[in-house]
Design brief:
The protein has 508 residues and is mostly helical. The chain has a single domain, classed as Amino acid/polyamine transporter I. Helices cover 77% and strands 0% of the residues. The protein contains 22 helices and no strands. The longest helix is centred in the first third of the chain and has 39 residues. The radius of gyration is 22 Å and the shape is globular. The protein starts with a helix and ends with a helix.
């Protein structure tokens, strides 16, 4: 069996690899990781300054893009183009409906839904918007609504534009591989994938994805570590964090190596069932009437305040919008092309209407179930003085509080074990998608390879673990989250071009 160094050398010598894109991406990741590790204090200052600059000068563009994406997809789905079948009218779906939904959902949310859904409301209750009194009944309802909003229709709309843009051209032109640059074919640039502009777009995608991925998993690891230390009754520490990272990297490396059909699909199907079992067990453990009341109130507020939440920060600056909504939209923008590339790969035989509504409805429904059930459980515990979520968030932090919520459930050991497994598999399926599509982006267009080599995918699985490992060593949650927004900035300007390309391609 070849070592990673030998695999790396073999890939570099391979004609099938675009050496320029691969090497620039590789050394940029290593360079950023080294800079953060060696100059930790200085890196923190630099990253914080860049984050503030992006939010202050480009924050409104994230808000506008999200509104535009939602309206664009709705109009497209109800138009005559909604009947457009990917791969032609005679094409049949490659995956069953349930497998397709499972992969779509799991690749789109990663471990974020587990990390945030149980406790996010606690951030909002004491600082409600729209002149609502803090800690009031209305504040709790709005807090639920904001979680649903940040993970709902608007969020999934951001995924929709790259998903549609890439799906159309991939099957229309029978492309050899999936690249973000291909989504701009409608702009009329000849052989765009091989052009300087196209290669620049693909390089931006790789770097943005790696940066966002590093920041994301870097923030999740402390929660997983806390979960395992509680399960095993051992002391938490850096060594546990490293072991958890190695476990995650090993799993998604193995899954990527197995391929989409045997790896990602199997894990997605399994995790979808496990997540539903987990949520059902929570429902059995709570007062159903009180949970339904909280859920209905939260859903009602999410629709009533939808436009106000969508536009908060546009007319006048809003610190809340900067800290939360803009951050979330940047997160979804950063991962949008990645998820879009993967959805394109699995959506042959589906109509544009099916893809759009599959993302908006099933994606939103899946995330809402987590927020309404797990988040509803913790909120109900807070209101009944059975849990102390708000104070715990201040005292022990987000990760420990999220674990403490799960630990308070009946059969806590079993529930915590399931919780950790679900989180790991969500991370794995998300990173499977990343490894697959990034590997596709470093293939030589003229190399004759349609699918990225297993060894190439394995190399990227390892690379994707480098930045999170450094961020865990660095032990700064804010830096990890700041990197997500910073990584998304270049992609902000690609989205309008993709929308324009979609219109032109459909009109041909």
């Amino acid at each position: 069996m070849l070592s990673l160094v030998e695999l790396f050398q073999k890939l570099i010598k391979s004609y099938s690899i675009d050496k320029i894109t691969f090497l620039i991406s590789f050394f940029t990741v290593i360079g950023i990781a080294s800079f953060i590790l060696i100059n930790t204090d200085f890196a923190k200052i630099i990253i914080a300054h860049i984050y503030s600059f992006v939010v202050d000068y480009f924050g409104s563009y994230y808000l506008i893009l999200t509104i535009f994406s939602f309206l664009f997809l709705i109009i497209l789905s109800i138009s005559k183009y909604g009947q457009y079948v990917l791969g032609g009218k005679e094409s049949s779906p490659e995956f069953s409906y349930m497998s397709w939904i499972g992969m779509l959902f799991c690749s789109g949310i990663g471990g974020g839904i587990i990390y945030w859904s149980g406790v996010e409301w606690a951030y909002y209750v004491e600082i409600p918007q729209f002149n609502i009194e803090p800690n009031s009944e209305q504040a709790y309802s709005l807090a639920t609504a904001y979680g649903l909003f940040h993970w709902g229709l608007s969020a999934w709309s951001i995924y929709g534009i790259p998903a549609i843009g890439l799906s159309i051209v991939f099957y229309k032109y029978n492309l050899a591989s999936l690249r973000l640059s291909s989504s701009l074919k409608g702009l009329g640039i000849n052989d765009i994938e091989s052009s300087l502009f196209g290669r620049f777009i693909d390089l931006i995608f790789i770097l943005a994805t790696v940066g966002a991925a590093g920041g994301t998993i870097g923030s999740y690891i402390p929660m997983l570590s806390s979960g395992f230390t509680n399960l095993l009754s051992i002391n938490n520490g850096l060594h546990i964090d490293i072991l958890v990272i190695l476990l995650c990297v090993s799993l998604f490396g193995f899954s990527v190596y197995r391929g989409i059909d045997k790896g990602i699909r199997t894990l997605s199907n399994f995790n979808l069932i496990l997540a539903l079992i987990f949520l059902c067990l929570i429902v059995l453990a709570v007062n159903l009437k009180e949970l339904l009341q909280l859920s209905i109130s939260g859903i009602k507020y999410s629709f009533f305040y939808f436009w106000k939440m969508s536009t908060l920060g546009l007319a006048t600056p809003s610190e809340f919008a900067k800290e939360w909504t803009i951050f979330y939209w940047a997160w979804w923008v950063a991962f949008g092309p990645l998820v879009g590339l993967f959805i394109a790969r699995i959506s042959k035989g589906r109509s544009l209407r099916q893809v759009i509504f599959g993302m908006l409805l099933f994606g939103t429904l899946g995330t809402w179930l987590f927020y309404l059930i797990l988040g509803g459980y913790s909120m109900n515990g807070e209101l009944n003085d059975q849990l102390n979520v708000i104070q715990n968030m201040k005292d022990i932090g987000h990760a420990e509080t999220a674990i403490s919520v799960v630990n308070s459930l009946p059969f806590n050991t079993i529930m915590l074990f399931i919780f950790c497994i679900i989180t790991i598999i969500f991370i794995t399926t998300s990173y499977d998608s990343m490894s697959y599509v990034i590997s596709s982006h470093v293939l030589n267009i003229k190399g004759g390879m349609k699918e990225p080599d297993k060894n190439l995918r394995l190399i990227w699985a390892v690379i994707l673990g480098v930045l999170p490992a450094v961020l865990v060593l660095y032990s700064d949650h804010n830096v990890a989250l700041d990197l997500i927004l910073i990584a998304s900035l270049p992609l902000l300007f690609v989205y309008p071009l993709m929308a324009l390309s979609i219109i032109k391609e459909l009109r041909k």
